[in-house]
Amino acid sequence: MQERTKRKCITTQIEIQISERPEDVFCLWIPESVFADFGDSLWLNSDPLQSEQDFRPLQISGQAWDYENERCRLNVNILPRESTVDLLCFVENRTDEPMQNVYVQNCLHFPKAPSFSSVRGESVFFCRNETWIPMSSTQHWFDSEENTLTNTTKFCYRTATLQQGRYSSDKGSRNADPERSDHCLIVKEARDSEFSVGIAGENWDFVFHNTDPQLGCIHSQPLPAMVMPGEAVTFKERLYFCDGDHRAVIHEFEHSIRSESRQSGEVADKPSGDNVQ
User: Fold this and answer.
1) In this structure, is residue 150 part of a structural domain?
2) Tell me, what CATH number does 111's domain have?
3) Spans of the chain below 50 pLDDT
């Protein structure tokens, strides 16, 4: 669907609806942006010259989108399954120079899902020290004196990213120390805790949540990649839609990891955050 939302220009959104919850429609920008070198845009849905996407149906199930210019070629595949949706974003370097720090950002947002409104991030969960905690409990999400939001976006980074110093301090915070996450999964519960939605990125870098009521989005950001001339990289994320609270999504995540490992003949590593609380 193409419409004007948070962006000033018209954008294309993929809408996902679950038959058991017709009152909630989950919106997806895929991609929201594609960058190289942390600022050199290859594609932006906030650019009115690029923002309208022409998705095409895949033969069995799902949607695809293609785009190319003199610098890159992009391909997106959206592959729905029983309770998950796989997101594949392919980026090819068409230049004669290496592309540093190429990354794709997708955005799962909730302006048409009234059951998932969350002013303080209290229904958004991430993992730290093998414990799943709400975003609202993080140390500098709120002004401690006035108990008001100091910033609408909260980033939580994996340990390696923090050790490498590859992070941005949260703007507007009195305490700019970044938060840590120990898991690629971030989950948002409905207010009644009877349904939850999650997103997990393969080779993830950080997770984040934006409380802006026009978005309320959750992200699991894949690591940036080096792409040599004529070569390509594929970024993979998975959406989860589960009955129950955030623990249902965590169990589905762990089940899918073990199932795929058995099919490939590999031994699965114990998923981070195995102790679900």
Assistant:
1) no
2) 2.70.98
3) 4, 142-147, 149-150, 170-176, 267-277
Cα–Cα distance list, 84 to 87, 146, 199, 255 (Å): 10, 40, 9, 12
Instruction: State how far the Cα of 5 lies from the Cα of 114, in Å rounded to an integer.
Output: 16
Q: How far apart are the first and last CA of the chain?
A: 37
pTM value is 0.87
The candidate with the shortest Cα–Cα distance to 157, out of 177, 137, 134, is 177
pLDDT digits (tens, 9 = 90+) for 15-61: 999 988 999 999 999 999 999 987 789 999 988 888 889 999 998 89
Domain span at residue 260? 2-133+186-264
Note whether residue 277 is domain-resident: no
Domain membership flag for residue 174: no
Rounded distance, CA 7 to CA 46, Å? Answer: 6
User: Rounded to whole angstroms, how far apart are CA atoms 12 and 53?
Assistant: 6
The answer to whether 198 and 253 are in contact (CB under 8 A) is yes
**pLDDT tens digits for range 215-245:** 899 999 999 999 999 999 999 999 999 999 9
Structural domains counted in the chain: 1
- Residue 196 forms part of a structural domain: yes
Dump strand ranges (E) for 48-134.
56-57, 63-68, 72-80, 84-93, 99-112, 124-128, 131-134
d(CA 5, CA 236): 25
